[in-house]
Amino acid sequence: MKRPWNLPNIPVYSLATYVGDQVNMNICTYVSAVSMHPKRYMVAVYHHTKSLENISKSKTAILQILSQQHISLVNTLGKRSGIRYDKQSYLRKKHLLEDWNGRNVLKNCAGLLELEKLWAKDAGDHTMFLFDVKSFQTNHDEVLMLDDLREKKLVSI
């Protein structure tokens, strides 16, 4: 039997964080819209990661709602450390990046949200960030879901 927090089937996101023109991307599921007006999101970022280093130095990030076609990137973005592995070079070589609002993002995301950091709070093994949504774009509704990762045995829950 699953534990209560593993019951919901939720979207899979990637938080694109930037230092200068360098991007790092992760996999995250601890994400939630928390306000309608203004539109705000909470995103929890795992400790000791390049994503946490980057967002700690920056005021902005892009939250990418992943699509079904991104399932092959889960191991690279979620299980490889950006501290030791250049994810941007990998994604560029595979021709998986495009420009959105002047930033590198994954091609064919279901949706994109440009975020501005309001505050951060330690939350155990993650740091929780509250962001304002500055702009957004919806591309399609073929969202990669946590159950897709479970079925492919990319996560164990």
Please tell me about this protein's structure.
The chain has 157 residues and is α+β, with helices and mostly antiparallel strands. The chain has a single domain (10-151), classed as Roll (Pnp Oxidase, Chain A), CATH 2.30.110.10. It is 17% helix and 39% strand. It has a seven-stranded antiparallel beta sheet with strand order 2-1-5-8-9-4-3, covered by helices on one side. It is globular, with a radius of gyration of 15 Å. The N and C termini lie close together (10 Å).
The first-level CATH class name: Mainly Beta
**What's the mean pLDDT score?**
96
Distance between the termini: 10 Å
SSE order, one letter for each helix or strand? EEEEHEHHEEEEH
Largest sheet: 7 strands, antiparallel
Report the radius of gyration as a whole number of Å.
15 Å
| Number of DSSP-assigned strands | 9
CATH fold assignment: Pnp Oxidase, Chain A
Number of helices: 4
Structural class: alpha+beta
Strand % is: 35-45%
Uncertain runs are none
Morphology: globular
The CATH superfamily is identified as Electron Transport, Fmn-binding Protein, Chain A
In short:
The chain is of the alpha+beta class and 157 residues long. The protein has helices at 50-57, 74-79, 87-93, 146-151, and strands spanning 13-19, 22-25, 31-35, 40-46, 60-65, 97-100, 103-106, 111-122, 126-138. The chain has a single domain, classed as Pnp Oxidase, Chain A (Roll).
